[in-house]
Specification:
mainly alpha, 48% helix, globular, 7 helices
Length: 168
């Protein structure tokens, strides 16, 4: 009722992904299609332009992109639509919760394209951005992924929450 692409609705998505997978679980418990539909909506809207964060900033009277000028839209996986993302970018916990939600939506809806995106993202994380210990998210600044094979042992951040998110 609140979110949607219609002019009278909010066209946004959560800043910290996690609700997507929770909504799919709520759909499982209640059987109410509206929860799966909302989760799918959040997945599909992320990264669309104009950026939701810019719209919200303007609405509050702030300068759009001020916050993201330093860390980038990839910090919250809004740099590209989900269907175009093939590498894990930005905040590692946010990314992995989002990818878990995307996988849940893909499985429930039978969306093969989303499943393939999930496979590519999984491969990128596990083959190029994961420490031998299973830790992910190598950079302390932004608690984030950086680039393929950037896995320094002397400053590994590898937040526990990111590893937990990977399990989902």
């Amino acid at each position: 009722e609140v979110f949607g692409t219609e002019p009278e609705k909010m066209q946004g998505y959560p800043g910290h992904p996690e609700i997507e997978l929770a909504l799919v679980r709520l759909y499982h418990v209640t059987g109410e299609e509206k929860y799966l539909k909302l989760s799918k909506y959040f997945v599909e809207q992320r990264g669309q332009k104009p950026h939701w964060y810019d719209i919200e900033a303007e609405r509050r009277g702030n300068v759009p992109r001020y916050y993201f000028a330093d860390i980038g839209y990839n910090y919250s996986q809004a740099h590209l639509p989900v269907r175009q993302q093939v590498t894990a970018e930005g905040h590692s916990v946010r990314a992995l919760y989002l990818f878990s939600g995307v996988a849940d939506v893909a499985m429930e809806t039978g969306d093969e394209e989303l499943l393939e995106i999930c496979r590519k993202l999984w491969d990128n994380v596990t083959q190029r951005r994961m420490y031998i210990t299973g830790g992910v998210g190598s950079e302390h600044y932004g608690e984030r992924f950086t680039f393929d094979y950037d896995l320094p042992n002397d400053r590994a951040y590898t937040e526990t929450c990111a590893s937990i998110a990977l399990v989902f």
